């Protein structure tokens, strides 16, 4: 039967099996429950009906049930009118012969038949032809079976059929492949609707095309390509996608297919203009582009001009003949032509329309700023009289159903939304002051000119800004207003609450109860939009419950009245939102806040026994929570807060005031320069932090919070292990999203980016690849954005960087697994695409885990097992995010009573900053953060209420701070230590983690490269960069070389001590970054000397409570508005208190210079510029220099943090200092500025130092009197040294002065003692975090090689008597057949002799009994016939001759060498020789032989300790040196003389001596050609020998074999070595297996390595093994299936790990997956993965070879 006929049957089987399976399911269910059933199907053709009926008779014979199978009378008559095919005619006849035709039209009779009538227990009636029945009314009792129902039974998609096809075609596909093909087929079905039969026919034609055309190879890409050449019968054009396969493996392919259908349907060309425009595009693309090639479906080239003529006639005239020709011709060039965007002419910048995705007020302010910026760029005049902003257009997302539900049309509905979110905004926009005289800003209300359009995507509002001055300009900007925009959501929330309250008009205080799953999903939302979407989803089921329902107010009627007033105010505010808009409602904020405060005051003033219950109820008012349950409010452990909670509404209202003030403030100082960055800063600082600081729990309080704009979660963190119902809610859409939106740069992104850049500068290998670990990640986007920016700036733009390897392992916390995985997947695709667009390749491997800190530590500790003596880790860098912040707890502490600010200072609410508290010396593991902002009224009142509920007996008149606390524990110390052990650099980014905590524990091994604070929008983040490795040594080396070069008069004997002290002093700085110094940057190294000298030279002021040195280089965000060239080096900041406990700050600015005296002038300029700038920046509230700017609170916060972050205080000082620091944060302080230059003159050999007083000119009198004076402190080299080392030299012992240290004249012992820079080779990694480790160990084997070069006449290697002839006999150029592809009978070969095969090694994986040994016998038989001899070292008894296959025995004639009987001709202590060049040979020294033997014993006996290993080394070296004929017996005797430890070693190997396994005197070896020619396979049998000794013998044999092939091996004279259970052998670097794998090819070595497990291998060993070019994967054991799947998913990444698990589980005995290289029909040599059946020995044609072997030279000796 030809191939096409096979496919025909397959396709028919797909359709018919689906149909009959569905019928069988219906019949079985009906017979089981009712005993009878009646079914009628749609009309089918005779051949289909016959097949179904025949299948039914087999399934339901008369012995099972009675049945009537009939074709409806009407269908019979219809068939008779048709001209049937021969198959259908024959089927028609057979149906009639079987009486399966209803010739008499007895439909009613069949309908009425019952089991009683038939006298049976079960009966079914099956009629075919519902479309042709004559009595439709008689069908009422029939179950109707249609193709749609059958299709639904298949899941409504093609996946089941596709999997059957793949199985029959022998294709290995994964779920993503099936899904992709199904998506295309479903798209085709939507373009051209198909019946079930036609769906099957489509697959038939497609598979016929694929199978019959030799141009398609057996892989997924070819299968996909063939689909697009199989659609012409459906009227869809042929698409030649082979050259664009990547496009068609993503959503772009769908667009092309839709476009092809749209084009060929001619629907686009009903208008003449479209015809002309498209023809012009196509003509330009085809006729002006010489590279365009066109072919038809048969592969024939088509003349481009002829092709265009078809297109022209088709487009202009809808010519049908041309249409048919175009369907058969590749249409892809046309689609590309029509998809090419016209080159845009250069237009003015004002034509671009920016789009903003934020709050409305922010969007309008940014749009206004954009317009002013454009206007100022185009016009020099400041004459602007009027700026108007109006709503030009709203593209909304309402449809007819929405309009119907709201009883208004779509545009009116859209208008109501605009009114809700923008109503009243004109008042606040009008308050903006542009600082332009007589200029008015006017926001125009909605009018009739606003246009509306409905669209299902991208809802947005277009604003028009008109600027009127000497000229008039119009600018546009967009604001994204999706259904889930935060303000639009809150309008809907207001409507919903009002509707719910309407049913409970007496509600005094509402609490909103949400669906539990939606509530939990909101917590796990990845961003604000998703949180809004989920909230919107939960509104319909949300319940409004009155907290005070049924409460008895008889004793507190005043409180009830106040609650009623609060409730009315709340309802009035919501009504105002709905009726007039959010901005109008904001005018009621004061009324709401006053009403809330009034109720709270009355409650707090009530009797204690009454107030407690009311307090607890009132506490939860306006919150959103999940079901209250039976425990009521006591069960609440977390709440959501929306903008209508008074605490939030207070901040929302203050936010608008702040933005109005800040924007006007920026314009007033802008000098008509409208700066985008300044505007952006306003909105960063106006972000609303947690409105409610803490939530009472059953025990204590929780300060854990998550914010989504106006939505906030407060309370106990929810578990990351969410159930499926919540995951389903979080599931993201598969639709492509616009990834071009510019996201604001986060502080974490900048930290990641800068650190990666610094690392690349220090470590050269980072230019080729990086391994990054990120732990405790809560914000994936920031991490990934930083890595992306690094890749773009440092790699993609680098023309010399073509290939890059990036492995990243991520542990996330607080994110749903689905969200994290989707984010990582999308990022991976995007980054790979970025590289591909620049013709670069990135090997990007990602591992993701959801885990808490404790679990992360346990996971990472397993990596430490692979650490070597150098201590170098497997990761380049660890980013450890907020690991302390994630486990804080809350407390309320008493605070002194203070009054709130006056109304005019309300703008100072923002930015909201959390302030660290000083470290208490007695509790130095405790870190505290003050969250309370007492200028925020409702937040403070709620904090006081929390404190009263936390501790019941507290006074109602006291005020309280909410404090977040964290205690650093031993587990944290161990975790940080683990990070240092597994990574080169450790970067901790945490609000609570600091330099002092890093120093705890065993910190001798990890040194701080840098510590800085003040990162983040509000300076909230600390960043430590530390290492346990060589960065500190690099820095010492750099400093040693540098200081020796510039300071010639230092004392050499204390030079290292000086360097250590300089580094110690710099480590104490809170921010110094030594990266540039590590790199050897001269200026950076000089800074280290200058900083150290300044710290020593300038003492802190007397009586100060706090004092800190701050490197200004680490505070670059302070100098955004000043030229960095004039920035000083250091700021010494100190604090003391006056008699009124007011903070008095001393700020001393220092510029340090090391070098020429000429540097003094520049230093003076720097300190003068810095003191002018900083004294204004940090001016207190009441200073004449205070600019009263919008960001003054931010700068006070920066002062607070700079002082506190590293400070230690006594417990007794804490209360006083905390009050002072709060006053500082409110601007209530005094500050005195002074300055100094500290300069060290190099080349000055005097002992002098001096201090000179100078004064600034200060011509504008900007400085206070005390600040105008500054000091110049001068030092010589010697006084520099004395100052740093605390005058260690007395006057009488000045010590020798030394010039530059010369390496020629000095032995550099000092240098060697500090320069210890081990090397590291980070290899490629696979899979999970535990596999992602590859460290090249510096073993003794590598470190201690010593060689003696001798002449080739040296005869010390006397035992090597084998043939040394260089004559090489070529083996037969024969492919080695492995097996055949399942069900296709296509042979797959091991391309053993192919010139392009990198090596001849073969790995075999599989469980016991899966067929490994049989496969090896097949391969050895094939190799024997090709003239290749093989060695088996059998330590598993798996290759005993009498247990092997007879055919294998007959072909290979294996010779067994039983070591238990015949000693091996091997000397285990032999000194091997190696020819390093023609005529020169090196011979191993005794100590090298000792190392080799020691390593063998050490690898076998893992219980040997270091002392036992040392004894082996010592005894062997001594014995071999003394006696060239040293043997095992002597070795054991010498060990016994070494005492207890030597005796323990001797006991291990004494049995080996007794067994006499080695013959040191043998004159031949096993590998000589003579021996190999006599037997195709030799088996070294180790049966009956203990397992440990088997391994030792195997290692000795491998070393001996390696020495032999180095001298006599040749790549054209191969030897195959077979090792089963190879995981038990030594796979370390430089072991014999390692050498044979890496270098074996040039000596003719072919390894066949089999194993049941890969779990025992390190990642390095696994990488080495996988250099083998060919692999066979048999069915693994259950415990290994995941590991095997991981390996296969890396070889064939188009299939996921889960796909491979499924495929591996499906393997039968003797089946395997082949992963290797083949030469296809077109001569291409490529790597493939194929599913094979191992061909049986009896089916390999060996019989003819065996019969004729006498004529084959290879077998002459057999």
UniProtKB/TrEMBL annotation:
It holds the Pfam family AAA_10. Residues 1398-1678 form the AAA+ ATPase domain. This is ATP-binding protein. Keywords: ATP-binding, Nucleotide-binding. It comes from the Bacteria. InterPro entries: AAA+_ATPase (IPR003593), P-loop_NTPase (IPR027417), T4SS_component (IPR051162). GO terms for molecular function: ATP binding.
């Amino acid at each position: 039967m030809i191939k096409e006929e096979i496919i025909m049957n397959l396709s028919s089987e797909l359709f018919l099996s689906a149909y009959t399976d569905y019928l069988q399911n219906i019949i079985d269910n009906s017979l089981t429950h009712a005993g009878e059933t009646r079914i009628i199907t749609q009309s089918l053709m005779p051949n289909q009906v016959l097949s179904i009926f025949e299948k039914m008779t087999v399934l339901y014979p008369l012995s099972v049930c009675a049945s009537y199978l009939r074709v409806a009378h009407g269908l019979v008559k219809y068939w008779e009118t048709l001209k049937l095919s021969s198959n259908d005619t024959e089927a028609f006849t057979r149906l009639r012969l079987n009486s399966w035709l209803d010739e008499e039209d007895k439909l009613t009779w069949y309908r009425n038949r019952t089991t009683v009538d038939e006298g049976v227990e079960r009966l079914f009636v099956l009629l075919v032809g519902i479309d042709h029945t004559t009595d439709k009314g008689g069908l009422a009792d029939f179950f109707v079976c249609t193709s749609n129902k059958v299709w639904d039974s298949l899941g409504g998609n093609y996946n089941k059929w596709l999997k059957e096809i793949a199985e029959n075609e022998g294709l290995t596909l994964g779920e993503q492949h099936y899904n992709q093909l199904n998506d295309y087929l479903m798209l085709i079905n939507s373009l051209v609707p198909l019946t079930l039969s036609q769906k099957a026919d489509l697959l038939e034609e497609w598979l016929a095309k694929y199978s019959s055309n030799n141009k398609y190879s057996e892989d997924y890409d070819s299968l996909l390509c063939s689909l697009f050449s199989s659609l012409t019968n459906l009227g869809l054009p042929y698409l030649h996608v082979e050259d664009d396969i990547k496009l068609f493996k993503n959503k772009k392919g769908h667009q092309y297919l839709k476009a092809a259908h749209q084009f060929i349907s001619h629907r686009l060309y009903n208008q003449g203009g479209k015809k002309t425009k498209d023809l012009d595009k196509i003509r330009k693309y085809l006729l002006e582009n010489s590279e365009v090639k066109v072919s038809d479906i048969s592969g024939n080239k088509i003349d481009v001009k002829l092709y265009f003529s078809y297109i022209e006639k088709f487009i202009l005239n809808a010519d049908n003949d041309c249409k048919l020709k175009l369907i058969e011709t590749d249409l892809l060039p046309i689609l590309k032509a029509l998809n090419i965007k016209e080159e845009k002419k250069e237009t003015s910048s004002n034509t671009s329309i920016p789009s903003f995705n934020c709050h409305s007020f922010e969007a309008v302010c940014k749009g206004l700023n954009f317009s002013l910026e454009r206007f100022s760029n185009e016009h020099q005049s400041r004459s602007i009289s009027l700026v108007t902003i109006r709503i030009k257009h709203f593209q909304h997302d309402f449809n007819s159903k929405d309009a119907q539900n709201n009883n208004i049309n779509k545009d009116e509905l859209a208008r109501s939304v605009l009114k809700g979110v923008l109503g009243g905004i004109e008042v606040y926009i009008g308050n903006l002051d542009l600082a332009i005289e007589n200029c008015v800003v006017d926001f125009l209300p909605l009018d009739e000119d606003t246009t509306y359009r409905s669209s299902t995507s991208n809802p947005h509002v277009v604003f028009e800004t008109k600027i009127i001055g000497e000229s008039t300009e119009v600018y546009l900007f967009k604001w994204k207003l999706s259904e889930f925009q935060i303000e639009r959501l809150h309008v809907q929330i207001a409507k919903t609450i009002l509707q719910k309250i309407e049913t409970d008009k007496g509600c005094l205080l509402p609490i909103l109860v949400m669906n539990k799953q939606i509530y939990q999903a909101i917590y796990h939302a990845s961003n604000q939009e998703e949180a809004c979407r989920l909230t919107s989803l939960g509104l319909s089921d949300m319940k409004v419950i009155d907290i005070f329902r049924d409460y008895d107010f008889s004793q507190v009627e005043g409180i009830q009245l106040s609650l009623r007033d609060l409730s009315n105010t709340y309802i009035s505010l919501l009504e105002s939102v709905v009726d007039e808009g959010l901005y109008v409602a904001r005018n009621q904020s004061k009324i709401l806040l006053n009403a809330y405060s009034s109720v709270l005051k009355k409650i707090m003033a009530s009797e204690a026994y009454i107030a407690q219950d009311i307090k607890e109820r009132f506490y939860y008012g306006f919150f959103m929570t999940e079901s209250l349950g039976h425990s009521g409010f006591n069960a609440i452990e977390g709440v959501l807060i929306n903008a209508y909670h008074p605490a939030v509404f207070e901040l929302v209202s203050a936010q608008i005031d702040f933005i109005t003030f800040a924007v006007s403030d920026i314009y007033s100082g802008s000098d008509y320069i409208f700066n985008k960055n300044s505007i952006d800063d306003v909105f960063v600082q106006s972000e609303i932090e947690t409105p409610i600081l803490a939530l009472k729990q059953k025990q204590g309080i929780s300060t854990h919070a998550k914010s989504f704009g106006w939505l906030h979660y407060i309370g106990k963190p929810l578990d990351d292990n969410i159930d499926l119902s919540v995951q389903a809610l979080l599931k993201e859409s598969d639709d492509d999203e616009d990834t071009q939106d510019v996201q604001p740069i986060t502080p974490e992104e900048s930290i990641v980016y800068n650190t990666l850049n610094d690392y690349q500068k220090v470590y050269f290998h980072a230019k080729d690849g990086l391994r990054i670990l990120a732990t405790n990640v809560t914000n994936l986007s920031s991490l990934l954005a930083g890595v992306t920016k690094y890749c773009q700036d440092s790699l993609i733009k680098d023309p010399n960087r073509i290939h890059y390897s990036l492995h990243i392992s991520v542990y996330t916390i607080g994110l749903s697994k689905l969200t994290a995985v989707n984010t990582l997947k999308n990022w991976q695709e995007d980054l790979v695409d970025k590289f591909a667009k620049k013709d670069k390749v990135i090997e990007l491997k990602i591992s993701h885990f959801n885990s808490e800190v404790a679990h992360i530590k346990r996971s990472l500790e397993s990596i430490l097992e692979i650490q070597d003596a150098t201590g170098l880790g497997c990761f380049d860098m660890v980013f450890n995010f907020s690991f302390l912040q994630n486990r804080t707890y809350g407390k309320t502490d008493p605070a002194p009573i203070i009054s709130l600010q006056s109304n005019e200072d309300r703008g100072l609410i923002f930015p909201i900053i959390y302030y660290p508290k000083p470290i208490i010396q007695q509790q130095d593991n405790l870190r505290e953060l003050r969250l309370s902002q007492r200028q925020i009224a409702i937040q403070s009142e709620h904090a006081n209420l929390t404190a009263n509920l936390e501790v019941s007996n507290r006074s109602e008149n006291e005020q309280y701070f909410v404090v977040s606390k964290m205690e650093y524990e031993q587990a944290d110390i161990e975790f940080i230590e683990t990070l240092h052990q597994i990574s080169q650099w450790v970067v901790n980014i945490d609000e609570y983690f600091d330099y002092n905590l890093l120093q705890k524990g065993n910190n001798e091994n990890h040194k701080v490269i840098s510590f800085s604070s003040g990162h983040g929008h509000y300076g909230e983040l600390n960043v430590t960069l530390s290492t346990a490795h060589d960065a500190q040594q690099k820095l010492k080396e750099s400093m040693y070389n540098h200081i020796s070069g510039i300071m010639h008069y230092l004392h050499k004997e204390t030079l290292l001590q000086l360097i250590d002290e300089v580094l110690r002093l710099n480590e104490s700085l809170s921010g110094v970054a030594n990266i540039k110094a590590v790199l050897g940057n001269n200026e950076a190294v000089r800074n280290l000397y200058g900083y150290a000298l300044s710290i020593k030279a300038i003492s802190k002021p007397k009586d100060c409570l706090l004092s800190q040195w701050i490197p200004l280089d680490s505070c670059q965000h302070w100098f955004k508005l000043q030229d960095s060239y004039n920035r000083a080096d250091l700021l010494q900041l100190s604090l003391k208190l006056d008699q009124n406990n007011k903070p008095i700050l001393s700020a001393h600015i220092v510029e340090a210079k090391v070098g020429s005296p000429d540097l003094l002038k520049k230093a003076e300029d720097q300190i003068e510029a810095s003191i002018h700038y900083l004294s204004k920046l940090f001016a207190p509230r009441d200073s004449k220099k205070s600019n009263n700017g919008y960001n003054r609170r931010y700068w006070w916060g920066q002062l607070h943090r700079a002082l506190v972050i590293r400070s230690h205080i006594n417990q007794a000082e804490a209360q006083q200092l905390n009050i002072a620091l709060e006053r500082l944060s409110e601007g209530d302080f005094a500050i005195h500025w002074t300055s100094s230059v500290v300069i060290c003159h190099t080349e000055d050999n005097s002992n002098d130092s001096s201090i000179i007083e100078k004064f600034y000119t200060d011509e504008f009198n900007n400085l206070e009197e005390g600040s105008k004076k500054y000091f110049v402190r001068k030092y010589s080299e010697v006084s520099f040294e004395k100052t740093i080392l605390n005058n260690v030299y007395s006057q009488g012992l000045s010590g020798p002065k030394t010039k530059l240290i010369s390496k020629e004249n000095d032995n550099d012992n000092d240098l060697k003692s500090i320069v210890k820079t081990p090397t590291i080779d980070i290899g490629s990694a696979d899979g999970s975090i535990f596999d992602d480790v590859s460290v090249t160990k510096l073993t003794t084997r590598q470190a201690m090689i010593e060689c003696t070069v001798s002449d080739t006449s040296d005869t010390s290697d006397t035992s090597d008597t084998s043939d040394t002839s260089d004559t090489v006999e070529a083996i037969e150029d024969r492919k080695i057949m492995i097996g055949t592809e399942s069900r296709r009978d296509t042979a797959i070969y091991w391309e053993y002799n192919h010139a392009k095969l990198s090596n001849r090694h073969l790995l075999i994986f599989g469980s016991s009994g899966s067929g490994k040994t049989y496969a090896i016998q097949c391969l050895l038989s094939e190799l024997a016939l090709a003239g290749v001899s093989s060695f088996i070292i059998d330590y598993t008894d798996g290759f005993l001759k009498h247990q092997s296959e007879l055919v294998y025995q007959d072909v290979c004639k294996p010779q067994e060498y039983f070591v238990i009987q015949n000693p091996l001709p091997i000397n285990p202590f032999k000194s091997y020789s190696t020819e390093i060049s023609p005529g020169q040979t090196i011979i191993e020294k005794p100590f090298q032989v000792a190392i080799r033997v020691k390593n063998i014993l050490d690898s076998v006996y893992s219980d040997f300790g270091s002392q036992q290993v040392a004894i082996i080394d010592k005894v062997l070296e001594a014995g071999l040196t003394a006696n060239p004929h040293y043997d095992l017996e002597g070795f054991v005797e010498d060990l016994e003389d070494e005492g207890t430890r030597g005796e323990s070693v001797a006991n291990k190997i004494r049995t080996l001596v007794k067994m006499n396994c080695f013959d040191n005197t043998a004159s031949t070896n096993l590998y000589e050609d003579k021996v190999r020619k006599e037997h195709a396979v030799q088996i070294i049998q180790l049966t009956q020998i203990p397992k440990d000794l088997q391994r030792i013998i195997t290692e000795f044999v491998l070393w001996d074999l390696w020495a032999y092939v180095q001298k006599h091996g040749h790549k054209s004279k191969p030897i195959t070595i077979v090792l089963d259970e190879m995981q038990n052998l030594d796979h370390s670097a430089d072991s014999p297996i390692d050498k044979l794998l890496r270098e074996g090819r040039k000596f003719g070595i072919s390894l066949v390595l089999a194993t049941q497990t890969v779990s025992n291998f390190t990642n390095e060993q696994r990488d080495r093994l996988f250099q083998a070019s060919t692999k066979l994967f048999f069915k693994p054991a259950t415990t290994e299936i995941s590991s095997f799947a991981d390996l296969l998913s890396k070889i064939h990444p188009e299939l996921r790990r889960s796909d491979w698990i499924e495929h591996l589980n499906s393997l039968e005995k003797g089946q395997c997956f082949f992963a290797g290289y083949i030469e296809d029909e077109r001569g291409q040599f490529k790597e493939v993965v194929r599913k094979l059946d191992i061909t049986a020995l009896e089916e390999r044609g060996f019989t003819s070879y065996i019969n004729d072997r006498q004529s084959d030279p290879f077998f002459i000796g057999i």
